[in-house]
Amino acid sequence: MYSNLWLDEKVKDNGASVELNGYDEASKRVINALNELKTSKALSGLKIKASCSKVPALSDEGYRLAFENGVYTIFTNTDAALVYAVFRLINLIRLKADLKDPITEIPKNPLRMLNHWDNMDGSIERGYSGDSFFFEDNDIVINERTTDYVRAVASLGYNGVVINNVNVKGAACDLINERFIGKVKELSDLFASYGVKLYLSLNYAAPIEDETVKSADPFDEKVIAWWQKKMAYIYENIPDFAGFLVKADSEGRPGPFTYGRTQADGANMLAKAINPYGGIIIWRCFVYNCKQDWRDLKTDRARAAYDYFHDLDGEFLDNVILQIKNGPMDFQVREPVAPLFGDMSSTNQMIEFQIAQEYTGQQRHVCYLIPWFKEVLSFDTYAVGEGSNVKDIVSGKTFSRKLAGMCAVTNTGNDFNWTGHDLAAANLYGFGRLCFNPDLSSEEIAEEWIKLTFNDDTKVVSNIKTILMMSWPAYEKYNAPLGIGWMCSPAYHYGPDPDGYEYSVWGTYHKADHKYIGVERNSTGTGYSTLYREPLKTMYEKPETTPDELMLFFHRMPYDYKLKSGKTIIQHVYDTHFEGAEDVEKMNALWLELKGLVSEDSFDRVKERFDHQVWHSKEWRDVINSYFYRKTLIPDEKGRPLY
Amino acid sequence: MYSNLWLDEKVKDNGASVELNGYDEASKRVINALNELKTSKALSGLKIKASCSKVPALSDEGYRLAFENGVYTIFTNTDAALVYAVFRLINLIRLKADLKDPITEIPKNPLRMLNHWDNMDGSIERGYSGDSFFFEDNDIVINERTTDYVRAVASLGYNGVVINNVNVKGAACDLINERFIGKVKELSDLFASYGVKLYLSLNYAAPIEDETVKSADPFDEKVIAWWQKKMAYIYENIPDFAGFLVKADSEGRPGPFTYGRTQADGANMLAKAINPYGGIIIWRCFVYNCKQDWRDLKTDRARAAYDYFHDLDGEFLDNVILQIKNGPMDFQVREPVAPLFGDMSSTNQMIEFQIAQEYTGQQRHVCYLIPWFKEVLSFDTYAVGEGSNVKDIVSGKTFSRKLAGMCAVTNTGNDFNWTGHDLAAANLYGFGRLCFNPDLSSEEIAEEWIKLTFNDDTKVVSNIKTILMMSWPAYEKYNAPLGIGWMCSPAYHYGPDPDGYEYSVWGTYHKADHKYIGVERNSTGTGYSTLYREPLKTMYEKPETTPDELMLFFHRMPYDYKLKSGKTIIQHVYDTHFEGAEDVEKMNALWLELKGLVSEDSFDRVKERFDHQVWHSKEWRDVINSYFYRKTLIPDEKGRPLY
Known about the structure:
Two copies of one chain form a homodimer.
Chain A: E1 17-21, H1 28-39, E2 47-52, E3 63-68, E4 71-76, H2 79-94, E5 103-105, E6 111-115, E7 135-136, E8 139-140, H3 144-154, E9 160-162, H4 178-192, E10 197-202, H5 221-237, E11 243-246, H6 263-274, E12 280-284, H7 304-309, E13 320-325, E14 349-354, H8 370-377, H9 390-394, E15 405-409, H10 425-436, H11 442-453, H12 458-478, E16 516-517, H13 536-541, H14 551-554, E17 557-558, H15 569-592, H16 600-632
Parallel strand pairs in A: 1-2, 2-4, 6-9, 6-15, 9-10, 10-11, 11-12, 12-13, 13-14, 14-15
Antiparallel strand pairs in A: 3-4, 3-5, 7-8, 16-17
Helix pairs in contact in A: 1-2, 5-6, 10-11, 11-12, 12-15, 15-16
């Protein structure tokens, strides 16, 4: 059993009159789209006409929707776009849009992807919603839920899914071998029937296991031949296979560095092998020294991706795309935007977000991440002068790249509600919408999702929207302050542990002492701030011009430094932590008002999560505040309890 | 494959002439003892005569050994004592004792036990030497290794072994049911054949699972009847079964508190049920609130065992014995002696140590614990005036208790060398010797063990003895200072994490701030110090009279307080941490000198552990020192690096 997410209720036959013109009726996408049109409760009795008209402006994935002369009309150029269009039409009707003014929507991002970190034993790395629905006991599972998942992601216009964890081990190595290739093909066909491409994560070190190769050196002829043969085998079995995601030289995964080669050498070797078949290689930039000595003050993990990739601009083949995490560290609740964005004008780039709430409450805390992603996307990199926003760089617009886009590590699992916390589904929904159109506002997306998921009762919409919009700022308030990050328990990444990472190998230190906290990252420190273009470089150079929310990311500061807000750092810590926990009380109260207005099951599930969050946000508040108080012995101006 | 521990090499027939008088030749113990006499290499060609002579002074477990008229003679009163005597004779001859002056040895402690925390899936809770050799895949294993284990512990005079973890779950619940009772009987018989009794840990909550009972209330007639029936069943199958160890109301285990009953109510209910068969109930006093709010300054875990048990003196039945951990907390490298010892004159008490190095380096660091146990055992409780040492209380002497003794959580597992670190076997050996005779010195025991395990080369004996004697003090130096404990990583209990327990539920806080560290436990604080008798109470009341090594256990102190050593607390921290790491370098150097003088395998294994310890002791040094430095910003007087 599992919930229906935001999808429309199905009826046996909705009596809609549907006319399809110009589509290949044998196409599975068309069959699926037609089926949606015929069974959507929202479309009951309506007249619908969909036409495959070559309208260049719509390109491959766009659609035009209208209500003309009593008929709902759909125009697309492809059958894949028809799938997206149908779902969008259904949603718009459910949202009571009248469509008297036709709308044309074309996805802004070529790649709109979800990355699953699902392991073949059924576990999910950083999964907070139960086990995998793709894998169980080292086998692939294909059942009703698989279809409903693909249908749900297609309904938002996602066009690619990586089904397995980037850390490819054990049985997952066999996804490209005889053992599983048949089932991968079956899954890939199912995905394709909704206009979604299936990708796999790949074990870069795979040929090492082959007794006749025993290497993964990208310059080794045997290695090159091994991959050529492997790609031929894959495409023989799955002719429309999309490509691979690769994590190499990262957190213990082998890669080209092992052989003294560059990241480009590694990526290009694979890209050449897959190129004859039209596949792509998505190469992650999450490369850093994960065995740092904490006493080493010179190495700065924040610089790593930049330092490893910056000089390689122009060296990557056209069917390689770099996948860059939004920030320079690792999905913290607040980080600057990674300086690599816009830094490489001759290299394909896409952005990687994480809707799995690894560091943002693990789907036990509500944390609507779309406002945070919006901030990142609208960040001006000044790559080609003012207005070089991240969203235009990753969409390919700025540097006219065809291979470009956005992806997120997903938050789904086998739980009844798919995402652990019912409200976490807003991130799965919202991220899909954002990939399609980064200009949508967080509020708009939230409202759509609430209405499609719950109902359009004014209180329901208003309260849940308020909860969602409060949630990320609240989480930031009661967590590590001012961009410093990493004050959570190591390994679990959950719950407060201010010194948890302080003496470890992870390169994530705050170095707090009695007087100061933070690592100096300007030109006198690690130089990280100098990796940005002007005027950012100058802005981040000095505390006076650095935005408050990133103060402790960029600078080592005394606790009594006055922020632009007029508060000292220490008082800011106290105030935000008390506020954050109060915000959770408010969100909880707003939810409790919805009893009887949303389904009882959903109400109870969210209530239970809030019970935990109310308690846990106070743990965060008291631990962080006490940590700072004990270190400084500076009392709270308002005399609230510190321990 | 596994090593031979300290046991003598066996030969097919040593040609010794052996005469046994007065023993029951059908007794398995006698058969085993005779076999040892006939196959011990050390006894080759010697004349031995063993007599079962009723010498009241030897009691049940003592023996007299002598060399008279060219014949080695053994006197014992029982066949169990014959086993201990034979092994002792062999060892004495291997150690080149001449026995011209007869020696009489009678174990000082009635109970001399090892507690295994082995789970039936084969894992060992806090096990650092591989998996269990008693259990595998939820079944009991009996093989050659089982026999060699029993032989090894019998050779030291241990007379009881609890084979399963005190946390009794899953399959382990069936150890007293039809599923396993046959194999338990088989194991018990094997143990008995070496004069060792087999005990089981028991699930106090077992009758809850019975649909007709559904309770564990010790006052519930159904519960009482359930246990009576269960004991009858057990003794029908294993007539000489020794008894049970019980962990109740502790760390999530249910117990009498669940039903508003006292610990005595719970223990006595079981004791009554087992009494008709001569069995005993060993009741652990490790009862405390493991869900403490860290903000709560009033609750003091150190008081818990005392507070829960103190008033129950005289209420426990004669076949109940309380098993009390050496300190009030949990096997830290330094704690005061638990105030419960000697506090209950009308209650059987035994002491629980831990040779599994849970908090003392997990058998990756060398840590010879006998000197620490000796300190505890010679601690004067003043229970009946000066000289009321712990060793006399737990041996039953002070209060004339027959049921009394010592036990240790054991450090054994399926590793080749049984104890992970070759040198950790000194604790298994040493603890057995200490149970037999707490007056032996740590050095004596170490020397015996070295000669029996390695050889009697002067350098071997001298270097290893120096290593062993340096090891516990070194570990204390580079760990949490001055008795404060718990600066290790939670869950793993390994490696430094100064604030790891600070904001948790475990009741183990140091509350360090910029100026002070520690919890005040005197009469103005939690009152813990008042639980001791005079003059201890007065001594622990004030820092001036509190021993330096326990300063931060008893008092909240400023970092610049001058210890009796003349050093400030902060300088003491720095100095000891530098010294501790240097001590490890010294121990390592002493070991490296032994290349070629001990077996190559053993040399390499220990070398590898030292490689780790050398590095890890520096981690401890730098993390603890940096933690204190960052908190205080007080520099090291000697200007050594702090981070």
